[in-house]
TrEMBL record:
PANTHER family: TETRATRICOPEPTIDE TPR_2 REPEAT PROTEIN, TPR REPEAT-CONTAINING PROTEIN PA4667. Keywords: Repeat, TPR repeat. TPR repeats lie at residues 217-250. This is Tetratricopeptide repeat protein. It holds the Pfam family TPR_16.
Length: 451
């Protein structure tokens, strides 16, 4: 069995790790692209796209000759998930599911790697109930496998299970304390709790300690998002630009760069950055952002082109088993049919009641004229006691507008001011609207209802 395992590792490109180096005093040669990508996808860190392509080709070739190699099927499935996540190519999802289910069928009886891969695939598809099921099965099969606990952080976040998130993070930090990947996970959780300084410190340490360019670039992009969310346009831009210098395939950083450039008033550069990001990673989210930027500039026809792209990408993603109800509901609420948005988002809330869904449903209800119920969901999205601890300017803006519509002028004024204090540039469309709404409210009146 040992001989077979070593032979398999040689084929996988891991010979430098498992066999002794007998090259005298000279250092062993660096591992090849397939080995680098395999190391990344099996240890919970981002992988470089060129390395992923090599790994996928290598494993596909290997599996044609060795179709009963369950470990290689799991590696291939994980590589498809990572490639799809990085490129927004949802054609990867059915291929990943087939590979991972094949691994379960032909592999070892206890197969945490395949179970964890299915959990990661479900997260990528925004199917958080399935992610919870597969992630908990992976933890049961291998309780000390930190990456299985890590994927449960995403699953529980999507389900609005904030206690579950805390338990999973505690376990990850116990099993792999201080590593860059765990620091990045902690930063995301701290951000959701509204602990901005702690989140920034964790992601800064993660980026500084990361060795592989793709991993470091991913953490720099995360740092850029945190900086932008607190309204620091220049620092956000620096993080995004450094991420792109480190890994030119870091398209999330390119979209972030566009966001920061737009906030700085450099709209021509912002449009170019968005278009470049969408050319390589045609995400519905980026199409919505670019469409709204065009709309803010009065370029309605160009905005409609992006909204059509969004619809097309959503259809393709849904055909591949992804759940895009959140982004589609947000789009319909502001640019389409608010009643349809409410129907979609009610169903989404019933299935996976995360904070982002609460905010989107509250706003859709407002746009459909149901402000009393809208305020219930807007409160969930902004109330730390209910899990909405994230300091989101957009969420707080939504709550302020709904309160203004209900005649609750004191709370409305407070929340609109708070949104602009959190990030005065949070949206090219909504930030100016927040300023207009606040101006309409004027200074406090003795007749204002109490907060």
């Amino acid at each position: 069995m040992l001989i077979a395992s070593v032979a398999g590792a040689v084929v996988l490109g891991g010979v430098l790790v498992l066999l002794p180096w007998d090259g005298g005093d000279a250092p062993p040669p660096a591992p090849g692209p397939a080995a680098l990508a395999r190391g990344a996808v099996t240890t919970g860190v981002p992988a470089a796209l060129p390395d992923l392509a090599v790994l996928i080709g290598d494993r596909e070739t290997h599996l044609r000759a060795h179709p009963l190699d369950g470990v290689s099927w799991a590696v291939l499935g994980a590589a498809y998930v990572e490639q799809g996540r990085r490129t927004a190519d949802t054609a990867n999802w059915p291929k990943a599911e087939k590979a991972l289910r094949t691994s379960l069928k032909v592999g070892a009886e206890r197969n945490p790697q395949a179970l964890e891969g299915l959990a990661a695939l479900a997260v990528a598809r925004r199917d958080f109930p399935a992610a919870k099921k597969w992630g908990e099965s992976a933890v049961e099969a291998a309780p000390k496998r930190w990456t299985a606990h890590a994927v449960l952080i995403d699953a529980y976040t999507g389900l609005g299970d904030h206690k579950g998130v805390g338990r999973a993070l505690d376990k990850v930090m116990e099993l792999r304390p201080g590593t860059p990947a765990v620091r990045a996970r902690a930063a995301a959780v701290y951000r959701d709790r509204g602990w901005r300084e702690d989140a920034a410190a964790q992601i800064s340490d993660a980026a500084a300690a990361a060795e592989a360019p793709a991993e470091r670039a991913a953490y720099l992009e995360q740092a850029g998002r945190l900086a932008f969310e607190r309204g620091d346009r220049q620092e956000a831009l620096r993080f995004f630009q450094e991420a792109l210098r480190t890994d030119p395939d870091q398209r999330a950083a390119q979209a972030g760069q566009a966001r920061a450039l737009a906030a700085l008033g450099r709209t021509t550069d912002a449009l170019s950055a968005y278009q470049a990001a969408l050319a390589k990673r045609p995400s519905p989210e980026y199409a919505l952002e670019l469409g709204e930027l065009y709309e803010s500039l009065g370029l309605d026809q160009a905005a409609r082109v992006q909204y059509d792209l969004l619809r097309a990408r959503v259809r393709g993603a849904e055909a591949a088993g992804a759940d895009e109800e959140l982004v589609l509901g947000r789009f319909e609420a502001d640019h389409g049919d608010p009643a349809a948005a409410v129907r979609r988002l009610r169903t989404e809330w019933g299935r996976q009641p995360g904070i982002a869904v609460a905010d989107a449903l509250g706003w859709a209800l407002h746009r459909a004229g149901e402000d009393e119920e809208a305020l219930e969901f807007a409160t969930i999205a902004t109330d730390g006691d209910q899990g909405g601890g994230v300091r989101s300017a957009l969420h707080v803006f939504h709550r302020g507008v709904i309160e203004k519509e209900l005649g609750r002028y004191g709370p409305a004024r407070r929340h609109l001011r708070e949104a602009l204090m959190i990030n005065p540039y949070f949206s090219p469309l909504r930030a100016p609207e927040a300023e207009r709404e606040l101006a309409e409210l004027g200074e406090p009146s003795v007749e204002d209802p109490p907060s």
